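Hi support team,

I'm filing this because I wasn't sure whether my run with flavin mononucleotide finished correctly. The job status page said complete, but I'd like someone to confirm that the output block is well-formed before I use it downstream. Pasting the exact inputs I used:
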Amino acid sequence: MEDRRRVCWVITGAGHFLRETAGFLTGAKNISGDLYYTRAGREVAAMYRVTERIGESGFKIFYEDDFSSRGAIYFSGGRYRALVIAPATANTIAKCALGIADSLSSNFFAQAGKSSVPIFVLPTDAEREISSVTPSGVRIEVIPRRIDLARIEELRSFSGVTVLRSPEEFYKI
Ligand SMILES: Cc1cc2nc3c(=O)[nH]c(=O)nc-3n(C[C@H](O)[C@H](O)[C@H](O)COP(=O)(O)O)c2cc1C
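And here is everything the job wrote out:
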């Protein structure tokens, strides 16, 4: 039987992979659910001018506006069939890997894990060198630190967590 439960999608404050994520969300007709922006996610999405596009995705939109991440209670209630954090900042990845739960993305990650809800994460800082684009369209090279790469490796060993390598992998999940 088809699983009609909702997907919970979190957009963190990352510019890298953001336009690709927006493109996927607006084109994906077979998934629906709740989409949350972290505080930084909301700001960065506005800078990259993708907020309106993401608003047309069919997802119900929410913003991080509290300290306890009250939306996290829905994971134990069976509301969601999956959590997707994409794109995921190095900040969010580090917190998730360390078991910190003091922000929307890290709380959702923790609660989804404790409720055995499958988690998919698309980290931005996953290669030794990244070519990205600023909000004004300037191409920049970013060299993730060893600590950023190490935290991603740690997440790969978490049960129930799938670390994606690129936005193309959205279509597989
Ligand atoms: C324009 C812009 C683009 C950014 N892109 C990235 C990014 O691609 N990856 C990253 O790890 N951080 C990026 N940041 C930094 C994060 O927004 C910052 O670390 C923030 O505190 C993350 O919070 P969050 O993980 O709760 O969303 C960017 C910041 C700005 C202003």
